[in-house]
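User: what does the whole thing look like in 3D?
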Amino acid sequence: MSRGAARAVPLAPAVALLALFMLGPVVWSFYGSFTNTALTGPTAANPEWIGLGNYAGLLADPDFPKSLWLTVVFVFASAVVGQNVLGLALAGLLRSAVRPVRSIASTVVVAAWVLPEIVAAFAAYAFFHADGTLNAMLAGIGVTGPDWLYSTPMLAVVLANIWRGTAFSMMVYSAALAEVPPDLTEAAQLDGANGAQRLAWVTLPVIRRSISTNLMLTTLQTLSVFTLIYVMTGGGPGTDSSTLPILAYQEAFKFAQVGYGTAIATVMIVVGGVFSVIYIRALRPEVD
Amino acid sequence: MAATTTEAAAKRTGRAPGAAAPLTGPRPRATKVAANLVLLVITLCFLLPTAWVVFASLDAEATLSFGLPEAVTTANFSAIMTPELTWRPLWNAFVLSFGSGAITVVVAVLAAYPLSRYRMRFGRYFLYTVLFGTCLPITAVMVPVYSLFVQLNLLDSLPGTVFFMAATSLPMAIWMTKNFMDSVPVSLEEAAWTEGASAMQALRRVVLPLMRPGVAVVFIFVFVQAWGNFFVPFVLLLSPEKQPAAVSIFAFFGQYGSVAYGQLAAYSLLYAAPVLGLYVLVTRISGSAFALAGAVKG
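Assistant: Here's the predicted 3D structure for the full assembly of 586 residues, as structure tokens:
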């Protein structure tokens, strides 16, 4: 065995695990999406090759474009706008807050992020339920709140995901803001720039790397959110809050169309893969 | 928790915490009061859903709405503390989390060593692949994973699920471990090599003892992820006696959740407690709340 090969031996268990359980599902996903695998029945054991049948089905199925759109709305509203803007705002506010307020605020925001996802989902469910905390508060000021989970399910899951995930952005931006040289903002202040101008022309350009990193990471995390939506609305009413992970799950396990669900999963792998490549290329992290 | 970071940051930039920050306005005093008030309002909004879990668990007549319990009781906790309902699912969760944590740490340390110490031709590509793996929404593709597990005859198998969870957290773990290992100076191993130690002996006797906090952080990171994971065991484990707390708590919610909110909240709290404790532990080990979030920052 050559020296190079001998040195690579410790990599073998990692390569084996990743090949079987990461690459495996990805390859299987591409393969399975071309078959008519079902959950039970004759085609469960011996699926047939149906070529692009599942993908043709996706395009013909009104639920798929709807779900794709809901996914875009969910990712854009809760991650790209909600978590990022609120996370940056919180990071900025934390810097000018007094110590007790700062520790209470960061602890409370981080707590929502540290909770196991199923507990966070229950908490959000209780908050937005027709008899939940939000409507009790609205009743306190004389407003009869709607059944949020039923009449505005997307709004409820978007707000819940902002509540759940903002801590991550807040922490990333806290670190980024701490790296902004104070002389820069002070110089801008002397030149007569107001707060908004300093933010737009000094702070944001300096932390742009953190912004792009955080945008990509929150996008990818939000793309795979399942539990929060599944517990809160079950993707419903109907398919009104079925994002792609929910739709794939429902098609495969509720309607027993595993091949069809796999095609949806393949679309998600491709979307996630494209985002990952953009992220890695844009960031060009130091791998040496 | 996270406040320690901002304080450390304040020290680094040579400011007293609370001194004029880049985002404060022209009238520091008024702006600062406003900032504190806005922050408190946001905090209150963030607190309400979480606080419901805590208060409902102590409330004899808990509803879905947040409210101070009229009679504080521990009856909700004692009602759920039965082997089938709580202890076995928590034990299963522990087996899943500890198993995948242990496997991930061993495999990640082994893999990180050559990646950190040698310049290999394919090391670069391997790291890029690992980084790509950290980004892939693998839990979003549980449907193909399910059919793969059917083919491999691993469905409803605890070891199969443990290995799958270990594999999905492996990219992040390798990335973190390599970064921790890079900060251990090579000169110490060179001394071991000249005394005839093999690379693996050097790793075990010299490098590992020096990066114990790093290994602990990686282990806790994987453990916490596995403990909180609902979707993976929900799809891969079918028999109730094998399911971890995340799944059995969901079944409980479906069966009794619409009546026994107090018990649901108590169960949630009991199940969340280890994660909260481990999170505090990590912030102590690494000296900042960033260990888990910051590690992801390329």
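In plain terms: Chain B is about 70% helix and 0% strand. Residues 1-25, 289-298 of chain B have pLDDT under 50 and may be disordered.
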